[in-house]
Amino acid sequence: MGLYTLAGPFLRLLSPEKAHGLAITALKSGLMPKKDARVDPMLSQDLWGMTFVNPVGLAAGFDKNGEVPDAILDQGFGFTEVGSVTPKAQPGNPQPRLFRLSEDGAVINRMGFNNEGMEAVEARLKARPRRGIVGANLGKNKTQEDAVADYVAGTKTFAPISDYLVVNVSSPNTPGLRALQSKDQLAALLREVLATRDAVVAKGKAPLLLKVAPDLTDEDKADIVAVALETGIDGMIVSNTTIERPASLQSAHKGEGGGLSGQPLFEPSTQVLREIAKQIDGKIPLIGVGGISNADQAYAKIRAGATLVQLYSALVYGGLELVGEINRGLCEHLKRDGFDHISKAIGADL
Length: 350
Fold this sequence. Notes:
Number of helices: 11
Order of helices and strands: HHEEEHEEEHEHEHEHEEHEHEHH
Shape: globular
Helix content: 25-40%
Strand order of the largest sheet: 3-4-7-8-9-10-12-13
Number of strands: 13
Strand content: 15-25%
């Protein structure tokens, strides 16, 4: 019986933010049983000059302040992502701002990039021994009108001390942020960030990824792919939370504002992934995110074009035991379909 099987019902009696705080405290304690991330060589991939021993990562949003990246890696994840981090500390939106939609296996959040700011997160990452793969997800402060300046500042700070960088312009909870996904603004932003990255780290270090929303028109997708390829970024994360509210939602919280994640996001985010993967045509790797709660769904993302996958919301309902279950299930799927390595399955459905 897993730890979450015992503790899960208790955690769900707490408010979502209190339960999250307790999870961070538990990971900080050092008492959590460690799990080996090296599940099977068939899941190991060399990407961006790094070895991902398995493809399952923890998405940004859980470890916003870089408090527990190593404890997270010790739970069997192939990689983890801190943030989103903004240059200045900010409290985020008023509480309550995080809601469980238990009937739907979903979560709505309108956190608003609450974090302790660059200096605090930088100090923690500098103090840890470099091991495993830890990315930094960069955001902008709510009151900052010059968005490019904030992403440049984040790049200067985190490119030397993280394994990859993510430009997050797809959260629905910072006013005006998603407008940065428009073609001209996005191209200007990415060029500045890339120039900054190249000025502070050696060539090939700190690969730059772009995280996009699932709520994109066909024109948006074509524009974003064109900008990604023209600017020479290293990858994309597809996708962030959605502002859509499917008619199927049952929870009393379904009308709350913010980004919806979890099970209802799986199909739409996978469809966007599939469409972007077709246009990218293998030129840069994609990370598939959205609604993954089991090996079937992780495998579907890989067959739709994802090289790696990330999850977060599913941990609210299934706990950290999910990581090992998904990796073991991926091995079973690959063997069933006659693939001797995960790379052979990437984009198999395209």
